[in-house]
Amino acid sequence: MPAQRVVIGVDSSTQSTKALAVDVGTGAVLGEGRAAHSVSAGPGRESDPEQWWRAFCEATAATGWADRATACSIAGQQHGLVTLDPAGRPVRPALLWNDVRSAPQAAALAAALGPAELARRTGSVPTAAFTAAKWAWLRAHEPAAADRVAAVRLPHDFLTERLTGEPVTDRGDASGTGWWGPGGYDRELLARIGLDSALLPEVLAPGSRAGLVRAGTPLREGVPVATGTGDNMAAAIGLGLPPGRPVLSLGTSGTVYAVGRTRPADPNGTVAGFADALGGWLPLACTLNCTLAVDRFAALAGRDREDVEGGGTVVVLPYLDGERTPDLPAASGLVHGLRHDTTPGQLLQAAYDGAAHALLTALDDVLRAGGEDPAAAGEPLLLIGGGAAGRAWQQTVLRLSGRAVQVPEARELVALGAAAQAAALLTGERADAVARRWRTTDGRVLDPVPRDDDTLERITGTLRRARALQEAPPQERQEGRGR
Ligand SMILES: Nc1ncnc2c1ncn2[C@@H]1O[C@H](COP(=O)(O)OP(=O)(O)O)[C@@H](O)[C@H]1O
Ligand SMILES: O=C(CO)[C@@H](O)[C@H](O)COP(=O)(O)O
């Protein structure tokens, strides 16, 4: 009987690292590990990259397969700015995707080059999330730290380099920097923000081997490591996603995306024109306020997160961290339409509705950006991420999308996508073909219900009328005092 081949896939996301040991032949998950991260509170959102490495070691060891796995791949939260000194140590904590202090730098880039030109060159009009805006923020606010930087990495590149010693990345995660386009790094844009391209990793071709595990890690020395990618690109692989099939991911961030048939370039900035990790495209819209914001409203209302009630007139814009979709980095949470008879359960349901509204109203734009007709009847919307397990989330998405919704039984689709990348190194298949073979989308399909347009319109109307409250005053926008 041939020996069982097992690979390890890792998801280094905002709140934690999750590692899965997966059987290459069947896709069976043989072991799991998890280790929590801490993220700073206050005006910014930062994490120590050393903590991610420790979490990687702990989570992979906890799978029980670290010393026997035959390949590995690491996916990670997108966009984060990791700055390293010549010894490979962090110069300062990483600036994360949901740190909105860099909003003025993003706006300055868009003003200087024009949104349409930026979308044409990089696929996206950068918001505060993009690494280019973060580097410009660092240059403006901590020039001494910026001068000490010998290497700039994304979270997954940082971990892959710790594991292999190789300074490499992939096109999916590179497409979230704001300084990469199909022709490679955009040197004119890099010069504009004062970043030397020599500090950046090499962008490997899809399906490449990043390197071999070096000595002194929990994994077996010499085992091949795949390129890895950004977490959303990894989930797309993990789902074996065909073009046009929409996905809604409910985690720290909310994301909605589909593999595109054409290269996206939305000059309005709602849709980020990411590359996927396989040579195609991944148009995506992302919110900053998803499961954590809704859980905060549950705590404020003194309710369990499933304890929701319909009816009433209350509207919640749950933009506790500022927001990216819509692009309102200085926004805060807003409750409107409270009455004497509003119940805590209705307030909580309104928080779910407000969080889902931002994603579902972007879905048609995402599909259009990838060359799809949103009106064409499609496959059920795939619901993934930590929130997908919640009944209140499932019912909210059903009601506000008007679509059938499929909830895969597999829980950690980012880590599974990374595992599929690792398996593909061994078998020579495409990574998404591996995931399809593993039947990772299998799960319950929830029948569609008529779309609740009244609620969607009430939220859209409140958002329109509250706009002045949610935007930073012009002077603060320029000075970066957006929060
Ligand atoms: N059953 C559930 N219902 C609703 N939310 C849930 C449930 N289980 C986990 N969550 C939420 O999922 C989030 C974690 O999701 P995950 O996709 O792992 O996040 P991330 O990848 O951003 O770190 C937590 O904020 C938690 O509140
Ligand atoms: O910024 C984005 C997508 O553009 C986020 O989706 C991050 O990639 C972080 O994701 P999670 O922590 O929610 O997994």
UniProtKB/TrEMBL annotation:
Q: Where is the composition biased (Basic and acidic residues)?
A: 474-483
Q: Where is the Carbohydrate kinase FGGY N-terminal domain?
A: 7-238
Q: Where is this region: Disordered?
A: 464-483
Reactions accelerated catalytically:
D-xylulose + ATP = D-xylulose 5-phosphate + ADP + H(+)
- Classification via InterPro entries: ATPase_NBD (IPR043129), Carb_kinase_FGGY (IPR000577), Carb_kinase_FGGY_CS (IPR018483), FGGY_C (IPR018485), FGGY_Carb_Kinase (IPR050406), FGGY_N (IPR018484), Xylulokinase (IPR006000)
Q: Which UniProt keywords apply?
A: ATP-binding, Carbohydrate metabolism, Kinase, Nucleotide-binding, Transferase, Xylose metabolism
Picking any one GO molecular function of the record gives: D-xylulokinase activity
Residues of the Carbohydrate kinase FGGY C-terminal domain: 306-424
The broad enzyme category this protein falls into is transferase
Give the EC number(s) listed in the UniProt record: 2.7.1.17
Highest taxon, organism lineage: Bacteria
In the record, the note on similarity to other proteins reads:
Belongs to the FGGY kinase family.
Task: Give the protein name, as stated in the record.
Answer: Xylulose kinase
Give me the gene this protein comes from: xylB
